[in-house]
Amino acid sequence: MAVRSVRRVVAGCAAAALSMSVLAACGGGSGGKATLNWYINPDGQVTLNKLAKTCSTSKYDIKIQLLPASATDQRTQLARRLAAKDSSTDLMSLDPVFVPEFANAEWLAPFEGKQADQVLDDDVLKGAAETVQWDDKVVAAPQWANTQVLWYRRSLAEKAGLDMTKPVTWDQVIDAASDNGATVGVQANKYEAYVVWINALIQGAGGNILDPSTVEKGRDAKVTIDSEAGEDAAGVIKKLADSKAAQPDFTTSNEGTSLGSMFPSKGPGEFMTNWTFVYKNYEGLIDKPSGPKGKTGFEDLGWARYPETVEGEESKPPIGGIDIGVGAYSKHLDYAKAAAVCVTNAKAQTALAVNEGLMPSRQSVYDSAELKKAYPADLLKLFSESVDTGGPRPKSAFYSQISSAIQSRWHSPNSVGPGTPKKSADFLTAILKGKALL
Q1: First vs last Cα of the chain: how many Å apart?
Q2: DSSP 328-371
Q3: Domain 147-318+395-432: what homologous superfamily?
Q4: Does CATH place domain 20-145+320-389 in 3.40.190.10?
Q5: What are the sequence ranges of the domains in the chain?
Q6: What residues contact residue 334 under an 8 Å CB cut-off, 6+ apart?
Q7: Where is the signal peptide (predicted)?
Q8: How does DSSP assign 298-324, residue by residue?
Q9: Backbone angle region of 3, left / alpha / beta, with phi > 0 → left and psi within -120 to 50 → alpha
Q10: Which of 126, 151, 199, 166 is nearest to 399 (CA)?
């Protein structure tokens, strides 16, 4: 019996090594304590490691395991583990768009009773709260909430004659940049962030990629991207592609590539749609080659609500962030759920926002003294309002296929035109019905 048991353990560890990486899961915690493996994405590693220590107890230790940088690769690694019923996947940091897929596959252990009330109370902003619910269950805990705003140089906007205290449109932003030797920074590479932009443009015009009332029907969801809103979105992309405001790497642009265009050695800078990390990024680059020149230069950084797709129709800023899921096959479900509550509480969210620029999903944290000291009051208000009133991507168990189908028909952005929404609708419908392959 003892020999067979040892062989099982060795075989299990060997299988884990072959499928992913060698983990502490093949052994217990120090001093007989349980070990909880927490898979995180690369954002905020310093603070997340501190949270892992802070939230460890006399009964368990939380050990950080690093996922790949790409959200798609993160999903792939976690999905492979959970499909194999891996008991060493205790906690995981999930992009909100993957929560429905994992919950639908029953890979997440739902929070119940008091714990459900703890992770999803009235303090959680609406946009973040919607990402952790599936089939009337709380299937994850919101940790930090991401959204996009329009970042810009105040001097550029003033020169262009734009009143940034009022809503601005994509047309206005592109024209202002084109007429003043500036550029517009976006994410238009063939990856998930490009779909984020497309979805926000469509929702900002009053439409959706899928009919929200049918989206949870999975493969039977109604595709609605071929619409006036879809054409409006395509029009914005085409206008930027054809303009002098398009950056040289437009077709391969990502969250990081346009950062250097805000404070160039020469020129007026840029308008840029990007996530909440931008403020802390530039604050840390004062007087560095790619950053603002002194405090005065940093004060030239401005921010405003995400641009309107259609003038007069409120924009729908993208919703992102990280939700903490508990693996359904964990050997330590009770410990893992308690740990998830700890790493997502208000204190944890405050640390992530102040230290890493990863903004909270709780309104009380935005109102805290710590955040008011770390960020301008109007920026905090903009972030929280954008999360609370923003637009989520389709909440579907088949989101990865939806995203890939959209990318395949909307990329390159230089090829987007009036027929793009219909082409993508036809292809997406065929993908969902199993009549085409990606």
Answers
A1: 49
A2: TT-TTHHHHHHHHHHHTSHHHHHHHHHHH---BSBHHHHTSHHH
A3: Periplasmic binding protein-like II (3.40.190.10)
A4: yes
A5: 20-145+320-389, 147-318+395-432
A6: none
A7: 1-24
A8: HTTEEEEPPPBSSTTS----BEEEEEE
A9: alpha
A10: 199
The closest of 427, 403, 409 to 234, measured between CA atoms, is 409
Place of tokens 């048991």: 5
pLDDT, position 72: 85
Phi, psi (deg, nearest 5) at residue 275:
-80, 180
Burial 109-121 (b: 16+ CB within 10 A, else e): bbbeeebbebbbe
Do residues 51 and 143 lie in contact, with contact meaning Cβ atoms separated by under 8 Å? Answer: no
CB atoms within 10 A of CB 51: 26
Q: Do domains 20-145+320-389 and 147-318+395-432 have the same CATH topology?
A: yes
Calpha distance 118→116 (Å, rounded): 5
Joined together, the tokens standing for residue 205 give: 């015009």
pLDDT in tens, the chain (438 residues): 333 333 233 333 333 333 333 333 344 545 589 999 999 999 999 999 999 999 999 999 999 999 998 888 999 999 999 999 999 999 999 999 999 999 999 999 999 999 999 999 999 999 999 999 999 999 999 999 999 999 999 999 999 999 999 999 999 999 999 999 999 999 999 999 999 999 999 999 999 999 999 999 999 999 999 999 999 999 999 999 999 999 999 999 999 999 999 999 999 999 999 999 999 999 999 999 999 999 999 999 999 999 999 999 999 999 999 999 999 999 999 999 999 999 999 999 999 999 998 999 999 999 999 999 999 999 999 999 999 999 999 999 999 999 999 999 999 999 999 999 999 999 999 999 999 999
What's the CA gap between 211 and 376, in Å, rounded?
Answer: 38
DSSP string, 353-419: HHHH---BSBHHHHTSHHHHHHS-HHHHHHHHHHHHH-BPPP--TTHHHHHHHHHHHH-SGGG--TT
One-letter identity of residue 37: N
Structure tokens at 184: 């517009």
What single-letter amino acid sits at 99? V
d(C-alpha 341, C-alpha 207), whole Å: 35
